[in-house]
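Catalogue entry: protein

Sequence with per-residue tokens
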Amino acid sequence: MKIHKNCLATLFCAIAALAVSAEDVNRYGTDLSSDMALIYAGGDQRPEWTVEEITPYVIHTYADGTRDWFFDAFLFLEFSSGSTGVAFDNGGHGRKAVKADYEWLLDRTFAPGCKLAALDSVIEAGKAELGAPRLRHKVVLGIPAPIKVVRDWGELNGHHLDFANDADRIEATKWYIDQVAKRFDAAGYKNIDLMGIYWLEEALFTNGGIMPAVNDYIYRKGLRSYWIPYYKDNAQFRFNWKKYGFDMAYQQPNYFFEREIPMSQLEAACDESKQCGMGLEMEFESQGKSRVQHDDPDSYYDRLIDYLDVFEKKGVFDEASVAWYSGTKGFLDLARSKDAKNHELADRMARIVAKRQAAKAASLKYPEFEIRDLALIYQGDKRRPEWTVEDFMPYVSHQFADGHRDWTFDGFLFLETDIDGKVRFFPWAGDEGATQKDWQWYIDKVYQKDRGLAALDKCISKLKKEIGDPGFKHKIVLTMPVPVKGNKHWGRLNGRDLDFDRTEDQVAASEWYINQMVDRFKKAKYKNLELTGIYWLDEDMCHTDGFPKHIAPFIHSKGLKFVWIPYFKGRGYEKWRELGFDIAYQQPNYIFHTPRLEKRLDEACDVSLHNGMAMEFECDGMTPFHAKDSNYDGVMKYIDAFEVNNVWQTCPVAYYTGTKGLLELKNNPCPENQALTDRLFNKIVERRAKLKK
């Protein structure tokens, strides 16, 4: 990173500031990645980052000739255009960047054949040589910092932006984030996932006021926000990084660059980072006056050794995520060096990274849940099936091509989103939300005679006579409507009108509803069904202010589990435990995404694995082989991806089948549809057999 001189006085002031800093977490910061390499890319003073140039960062060649994966994450960033003298942050010299410069940087970042494209290619080749990497590779992209002195940045939506105004700087930054996400998706990279956005400024003296809004927008895009503050005169910002909305911050010790800086600063940076929940930056470079190469006359080789030794002593390598700053091309220069000591040092770093990644990979696992295979049943609105005994047959059991029949799903989630598309049970723009009368309508639909739950219970009893006892009770999850904030006309409870702008009224209505559901389930005395959980209908946390955590204790007091299925990276997905849920399933949304992202299924599995989430399998009425615009091939890819990513082996799965997806497959018999359902339900039967063992 940038070089900042320091002194002992600054060090002691920083330690004093830490004592009055924000939350004392007393643990190092950890991220989805283990080790992230900083790649300076864009300006003409940088390498082009071709396949040859990026390879030493992706695959390390040891002194004995053996090769292994190296970094699992990459931060692409740029401060300056180089010879044209355009600055992308407040600390840069020269002309300050305007919209045309932002577009130039985007074009450079996503240029074909180099940078991101080269990284993707190297990983693809590495898979053929080395096999699957320990961790899926991730990318963080830096964004320019809007500079206040820019009075005419350019036009957006018919408005010329003036960066003296906070709102205009936020608008330009959001535009750039949108462009990054759009271009990344359009590029179709197979082996790298966009993990987050990096804020380029290493202190927040000029843009601190806009950071909460910017980071909130990044979060709403399903991305993480990153920051790497420098050490000097920055305590009020770096120790309070969470208040600005960052998801991850790494501290720069800034020990490497000046010989007069004592090792105590490096050690203090480790201690402070642990106290504030930050990761650490490893620092060296091969340019400038502080060059690391052992064979250089003024080598700073020994100071990099100090980093490695101190990080080992302080437990950084055992606990923290690490960002690796190596100047413009540090690891490339080490790889090309003829000096044995340089190779020895690079080998040491590569072994450290490999060990850390192996430990992180081993720690990742999908969650456990008492329901192994949960089928989603949309019931209530007139566009849904009647859900008679016959309708349930293809959901409760499957007849294979050889004629034998077996049990399938062990759990069923009953849910409904709306009534005739007019009354909705979750937040919707311009809609106040469903009333108590609407909630009661849905309760009555769930417990309708000879339909829904009653029909499912009878279907299971009928099949027991045909194929024997399944050896388990089928588990049921029931949906609760969302008490929509702003609804002042929901209805009366305990003699007063409820106002959903009051959290206590939202809780009261929710408890009334859950009591109704639980009591009627008990009274029904189903022979084959067991009420297991309550499902939260809204698929993100954009409009509910984290309300689930207020009702979770009541659900748990009923002996039930709280279940959630957010859409792919839906807001709040990574905080599902904090919200009070007992399990959350990730929707890949692969078959619904246009254009389809070929890597989406692998990425969704990786997101779930890193966040301890389960997975959703998705198909719908367009799945049959002969359907117009059939999703058949896409659905087969779910089965393939779940095999490759060990979902079938270890992970609970929820099955979205649209309104009546399995009924459509049953009603359209052909060898292809039989092959798909046989393959899917073979997985379910195998999972059940494994569980019994």
